Amino acid sequence: MNVAIIGYGKMGKEVEKLLLPYHRISCIIDIHNVDQINNLHAYNTDVAIEFTTPESAVNNILLCFKQNIPVVCGTTGWYDKFDIIKNACSQYNATLFYATNFSIGVNIYFYIIKHAAQILKKHINTYSIQIEEIHHTQKKDSPSGTAITMSKILMNEIPEIKTWVNYINNSIVNTTIHELPIISKRISDVVGTHKLQFLSEIDEIIIEHKAHNRKGFALGAIKAAEFIVGKKGIFTMNDLLEIN
Ligand SMILES: NC(=O)c1ccc[n+]([C@@H]2O[C@H](COP(=O)([O-])OP(=O)(O)OC[C@H]3O[C@@H](n4cnc5c(N)ncnc54)[C@H](O)[C@@H]3O)[C@@H](O)[C@H]2O)c1
Questions:
Q1: Pair 129, 177: CB distance under 8 Å
Q2: Whose CA is nearest to atom 27 of ligand 1?
Q3: Which end of the chain has fewer beta carbons closer than 10 Å to its terminal beta carbon, N or C?
Q4: What H or E segment, with its residue span, contains residue 88?
Q5: In angstroms, what is the span from residue 11 Cα to ligand 1's centroid?
Q6: pTM, whole model, 2 decimals?
């Protein structure tokens, strides 16, 4: 596979490291050579892997669509524009794989919290529920896309929860049963930690996922790229993994 890396920051560099033994890199695009994204075919690109910023991801995806290059997007924080991307994907008969978290461990974690919620929902009056996410201080979006996915899983399983509310660097929260608190903390060098907490006066149940490095995200994005070549439409981790 000839892979274009769009965004040469922490994730772009990790993807490059893990791609090289198995695939070729057609081009690496960052802000200093952003115009090259209009010319992906000139570099014999089969697929693009995009890890940039919430502000640039939508445009980058659209530019890949227009050139008929399948794109894997790991950038989070742009999902309020998802309908634009969905419509463009069908208009251009294009291909997108997106995930709030490409790590296989986190996707197993999503499965575990779904089943935990199915059990705990009968005890919603005993336990209050909250999510805590901790990331490095350069992270631009808050809460994390992973925490938003967790809250969607909980809202699907526990009808009493209607919405999530974000608290930044604040662990003291006063919410109703209908509001799920997501506490976001920014601490230097933390790759990504997510905790689902069921708290009562008597005890607490905490289910935690902690990423030790970025390798899992990059490997998942490369697997996603291998998966979408030759396919059309929008795909996510449930299509790649046999986890339901
Ligand atoms: N889905 C996942 O599994 C996962 C995992 C880790 C990080 N992320 C997300 O991926 C994104 C990138 O993370 P990172 O840690 O690599 O960030 P980073 O800040 O280290 O790198 C982002 C890079 O994108 C470049 N960039 C900005 N605008 C651009 C544009 N228009 N075209 C090309 N390049 C551009 C920047 O110059 C920078 O080098 C963030 O949104 C982060 O939350 C997702």
A1: no
A2: 52
A3: C
A4: helix 82-91
A5: 6
A6: 0.89
- Round to whole Å and give the CA distance between 205 and 40: 49
DSSP-based three-state secondary structure for 178: coil
**Distance of alpha carbon 57 from alpha carbon 152, whole angstroms:** 22
CA distance to 47, 93, 101, 154, 194, per residue, from 185 (Å): 34, 40, 18, 21, 10
Residue of the CA atom closest to atom 40 of ligand 1: 75
Q: Is the CB of 77 under 6 A from ligand 1?
A: yes
Atom number of ligand 1 nearest to Cα 141: 43
Domain boundaries, the chain: 2-98+215-240, 104-211
CA distance 68 to 241: 25
CB of 64 within 6 A of ligand 1: the answer is no
| CATH code given to domain 2-98+215-240 | 3.40.50.720
C-alpha of residue 164 to centroid of ligand 1, in Å: 25
With a 6 Å cutoff on the Cβ, whether 236 touches ligand 1 is no
Among protein residues, the one with the nearest Cα to ligand 1's atom 15 is 10
Is the CB of residue 6 below 6 angstroms from any atom belonging to ligand 1?
A: yes
pLDDT tens over the chain, length 244 residues: 999 999 999 999 999 999 998 999 999 999 999 999 999 999 999 999 999 999 999 999 999 999 999 999 999 999 999 999 999 999 999 999 999 999 999 999 999 999 999 999 999 999 999 999 999 999 989 999 999 999 999 999 999 999 999 999 876 667 788 999 999 999 999 999 999 999 999 999 999 999 999 999 999 999 999 999 999 999 999 899 876 6
Kindly list the catalytic residues.
Answer: 135, 139
